[in-house]
Amino acid sequence: MSAVFGWADTGIADIVDTTGISRSSLYATFGSKQDLCLAALRRYLAEHAGPAFAALETGGRGLPTIAEFFGGLITARCLGPRARWGCLATNLQTGGQARHSSVRDVLTEHHQQLRGALRAALDSADRLDQLRRDLDLDATGEHLVLVAQGINLRSRAGADASTLRSAIAAALNALRRSGNTTDTWPR
Predict the structure, then answer these.
(1) What is the four-CA torsion angle of 171, 151, 47, 25, rounded to 10 degrees?
(2) What count of other Cβ atoms lies within 10 Å of the Cβ of residue 28?
(3) pTM, whole model, 2 decimals?
């Protein structure tokens, strides 16, 4: 639970000390540190990723909706009390927790949901004639997932918000149909 060392380096004693929950209550409730990790991941995704994905799926404005998603992601990762912590899902992937099948399954589902939500926003952008005609929307959705994961990693490493916003503007400009000059990029 340490923002500095990550889940793998956090022992049960650290969790007990931080939460004030007794070791026996922790084991009675969750069974193991791995089960606690899984419960925390599911809660995190429901509370943080779920609303962001819903906004992508229902935004209906295409590229501006995608830009708002990335703007919110950059703000969450670079500003406020949890700045530089990164994303729990990305941190667990890079910290080795994905080798556990139960965590890997949740992370795979999360990836698919993000790709699906981005694809829904790309479909809106396509209907609104905002995108280049030669784009493969499935591949573009996957590309944007990778960009989101890159933001999570770069922000944790100290990248500033303006640098990340510039990178997102470049990525979204590359998708834009020629002649579409609407300024939709994150500030």
Answers:
(1) 160
(2) 10
(3) 0.85
